[in-house]
């Protein structure tokens, strides 16, 4: 595993640089990441390139066994470029132009900026692309971060209009698909269409409250901007590959925080890579982002280019909690267990200046090694011991389907926005499956579903006719699909279907949705759940009354809904289609999933998993290797259904596995 830190040699005076390089070499890490904000040092004046300072650090670390991920510095255009070409600046949805002085203040569609970005990327690749100590390249930094992914400058407006014309061909077709007759919004030409005023960007502000725009316009702009970001990225990727055979990637942020379609965005890159900042003090590290990462490029291990180090100030001045003792080591093993090939802490030494001053880091600003440094050193040694496990693989039989169009559509026009978030809901069900002892992947709607016996289709809100066909054929051939409320409600233009819901799939699920409503604090309704033993729970989030020939698994028992089916099971072809028309409490959801999976032949892990413990399984030479993690700070005993032995120590556990607080254990079934 590539393990290390982000480092910023351009900040350092010679004495501080020598101090840091010595500590880096003594730390045991094997990777650093550098350069993402150093354009003014790489090209201090137009066309005047200077990489000697960077090459010296790359070579010195490389001779000590530490390789470098180099970044193109295009997230921060320098002052001379902005002064000469102010037209490159970003314009937000309020019409406000971002001035020089922060970061990401550029328009990704501006041809002038693209030309200068290509220039610095080419110069960097020429200078260091063949260096044997360079491991790979990161393009830009966190594209679209901090509300910079939806530019409204004149260049973007014209390009968006052209994008729409290419997609729809005629203005009449666009009007028909978007339903612009509503509120007399019909367009006469593509030149009349402006980007939406509203935005779903994280950290962005709405400029006109209670201004309701066409959902088709808004979803189209999300797609256009995502494709524009990808187009800008690929200009640099092509140049880097021209001069180097090293890995080329960029660093995503979360699953959908920046509204870039990562399935598309990483198609032309060598690795999926992202930044991840979980709480290492009092929270469980979610494995959901790792499952998602595996689904972006299933044939390549993913990289984590920025990861929590603990302590210090945040970018906005707030603080981050320190990591618990042992948590850095646990986190690195946790990432490795779930498919990571790289984990780099942000950062090595805290900044004394700038917007990120006194930020979280392995070393504080004084540069003295303390607890975090020594734990990183210990972790680096441990990862060397675990190198044989890099040949193991993750094999899951269950997959969640994550769809960007659905994610965006439910942000554009939310459904019960108080209680329902598409990403959080998928993550919750993923966590529930794990607590019952089942591993799962997260995959694209375009992926091959056939390798998974069970597909969980969480609120497949937007579904084209071809997607409906894919669901139908999957079940018909023997797949088990578990769909939740809000399935197949809108088409790919973000326009509601006029046929009965779930549109195009009523025969597959054996149900028709006859009535819907959100569920708030004052209108919960009880239902009886009958997967095996019967018990009564309250609905939550959303309620759909179902009718049809499907077998009821959940039925309302009160109010006017009494006797109405809300959860169903239906055989279609060789497979089974389950429809869950409401949300359930965790225990009830768990029982329902247990029941469904018991009919599929999928085996749970051989442990009774306590609260706060997470289990992951990898296969090495046909043998299961289990990673157990305890995220609480107290020791716990994990009941095992069969004897196991510790992978690192060889110790045998007959019935219980001891897990230290913020600790982990790697075991395999005992052959003795």
TrEMBL record:
Q: Where is the Glycoside hydrolase family 42 N-terminal domain?
A: 7-384
Read off the Pfam families from this record: Glyco_hydro_42, Glyco_hydro_42M
Q: Name one GO cellular component term.
A: beta-galactosidase complex
In its UniProt entry, what is this protein called?
A: Beta-galactosidase
PANTHER family registered for this protein in UniProt: BETA-GALACTOSIDASE GANA (PTHR36447), BETA-GALACTOSIDASE YESZ (PTHR36447:SF2)
Record EC number: 3.2.1.23
Sequence positions that bind substrate: 103, 141
Q: Which InterPro entries match?
A: Beta_galactosidase_Trimer, Class_I_gatase-like, GH, Glyco_hydro_42, Glyco_hydro_42_N, Glyco_hydro_b
Q: Which organism is it from?
A: Acetatifactor muris
Per UniProt, residues of the Beta-galactosidase trimerisation domain are 397-602
């Amino acid at each position: 595993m590539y393990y290390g830190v982000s480092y910023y040699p351009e900040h350092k005076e010679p004495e501080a640089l020598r101090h840091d390089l010595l500590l880096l070499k003594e730390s045991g890490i094997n990777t650093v990441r550098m350069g993402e904000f150093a354009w003014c040092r790489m090209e201090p004046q137009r066309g005047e390139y200077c990489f000697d300072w960077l090459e010296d650090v790359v070579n010195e670390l490389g001779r000590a066994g530490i390789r470098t991920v180099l970044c193109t510095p295009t997230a921060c255009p320098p002052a001379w470029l902005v002064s000469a070409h102010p037209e490159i600046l970003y314009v937000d949805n309020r019409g406000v132009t971002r001035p020089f002085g922060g970061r990401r203040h550029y328009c990704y569609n501006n041809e002038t900026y693209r030309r200068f970005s290509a220039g610095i990327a080419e110069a960097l690749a020429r200078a260091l692309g063949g260096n044997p100590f360079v491991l790979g390249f990161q393009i830009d930094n966190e594209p679209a971060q901090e509300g910079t992914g939806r530019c409204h400058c004149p260049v973007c407006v014209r390009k968006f209009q052209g994008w729409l014309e290419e997609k729809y061909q005629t203005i009449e077709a666009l009007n028909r698909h978007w339903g612009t007759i509503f509120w007399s919004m019909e367009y006469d030409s593509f030149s009349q269409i402006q980007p939406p005023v509203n935005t779903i960007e994280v950290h962005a502000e709405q400029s006109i409250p209670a201004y309701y725009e066409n959902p088709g316009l808004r979803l189209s702009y999300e797609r256009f901007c995502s494709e524009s970001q990808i187009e800008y990225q690929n200009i640099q990727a092509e140049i880097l590959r021209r001069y180097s055979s090293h890995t080329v990637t960029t660093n995503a942020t979360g699953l959908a925080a920046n509204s870039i379609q990562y399935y598309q965005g990483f198609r032309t890159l060598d690795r999926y890579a992202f930044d991840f900042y979980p709480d290492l003090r009092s929270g469980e590290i979610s494995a959901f982002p790792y499952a998602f990462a595996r689904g972006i490029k299933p044939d390549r291990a993913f990289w984590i280019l920025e990861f929590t180090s603990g302590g210090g100030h945040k970018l906005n001045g707030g603080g981050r909690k320190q990591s618990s003792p042992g948590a850095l080591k646990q986190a690195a093993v946790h990432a490795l267990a779930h498919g990571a090939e790289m984990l780099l802490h942000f950062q090595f030494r805290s900044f004394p200046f700038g917007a990120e001053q006194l930020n979280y880091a392995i070393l504080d600003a004084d540069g003295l090694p303390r607890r975090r440094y020594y734990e990183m050193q210990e972790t680096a040694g441990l990862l060397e011991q675990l190198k044989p496990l890099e040949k193991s693989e993750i094999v899951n039989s269950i997959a969640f389907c994550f769809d960007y169009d659905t994610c965006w559509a439910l942000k554009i026009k939310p459904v019960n926005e108080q209680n329902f978030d598409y990403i959080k809901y998928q993550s919750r069900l993923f966590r529930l499956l794990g607590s019952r002892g089942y591993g799962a992947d997260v995959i694209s709607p375009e992926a091959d579903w056939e390798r998974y016996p069970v597909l969980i289709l969480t609120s497949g809100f937007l579904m084209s006719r071809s997607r409906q066909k894919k669901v139908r054929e999957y079940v018909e051939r023997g797949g088990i699909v578990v769909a939740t409320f809000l399935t197949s409600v809108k088409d790919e233009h973000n326009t509601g279907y006029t046929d009965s819901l779930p549109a195009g799939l009523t025969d597959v699920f054996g149900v028709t949705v006859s009535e819907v409503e959100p569920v708030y604090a004052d209108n919960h309704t009880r239902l009886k759940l009958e997967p095996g033993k019967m018990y009564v729970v309250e609905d939550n989030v959303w309620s759909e009354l179902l009718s049809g020939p499907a077998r009821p698994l959940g039925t309302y028992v009160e109010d006017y809904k009494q006797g109405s089916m809300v959860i169903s099971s239906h055989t279609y072809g060789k497979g089974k289609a389950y429809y869950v028309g409401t949300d359930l409490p965790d225990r009830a959801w768990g029982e329902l999933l247990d029941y469904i999976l018991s009919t599929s032949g999928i085996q749970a892990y051989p442990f009774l998993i306590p609260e706060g413990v997470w289990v992951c399984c990898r296969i090495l030479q046909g043998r299961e290797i289990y990673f157990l993690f305890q995220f609480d700070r107290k020791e716990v005993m994990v009941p095992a259904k069969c004897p196991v032995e510790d992978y690192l120590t060889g110790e045998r556990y007959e019935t219980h596995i001891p897990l230290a607080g913020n600790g982990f254990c790697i075991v395999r079934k005992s052959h003795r």
